[in-house]
Amino acid sequence: MKKPFWEQTYQDKSVSTFSKGPTVDLKEYAYLLNPRSLVLDVGCGEGRNSIFLAAQNHIVEAFDLSKAGIEKAKGIAGEMNLNIKFWSQNLAAFEFEKEYDVILSHGVLHLPEKVYRDKFISEAQKNTKVGGFHFIGIFTNRLPATPDNAPFTKSLFDVGELPEKYSEWEIIHHLEGTFSDEHPGGIKHEHAFERIIAKKL
Length: 201
Fold this sequence. Notes:
With about 200 residues, this protein is an alpha/beta fold. It has a 7-stranded mixed beta sheet with strand order 3-2-1-4-5-7-6. β6 and β7 form a beta hairpin. The N and C termini lie far apart (about 45 Å).
């Protein structure tokens, strides 16, 4: 099977596969985090959010299925003298060994089969400290998966499904809609997304 487009751009150190700097929600709401928060970045890709938070003196652990993405993230962090624990891991096989203050996942949880992503969200909620935060961004079925991403997209969320999973948490931020983006090599996509920032009560 053909590899997803990001595997190629992860191997090119001269470009950013998604966009430089942290995701919009994290940039806007990072002020909520306690100093030296313990963070888990799930599906970290090239490490854009991990690097942003480590530069703010948070303690960051991050994994991604892509070995190329992890190698690139390690290289960028090394150039910036940031100490981040990066490793390659399949989300479906991940098991929590500790509690975190913050768990991030952007553009990832719609990729595995529904049984794995639902189990992951449930375990992530259990392994978040009271007062901790989840920053989650996913793609919904308001639009179909783009043809090149469809083979890798196993469980687009229903609109409203993500915030429903956080009904017992405080929803600090919620946004749902569509957006267009462009990746290196002129790859253009239109996606339907939903994102939340939620605080464990």
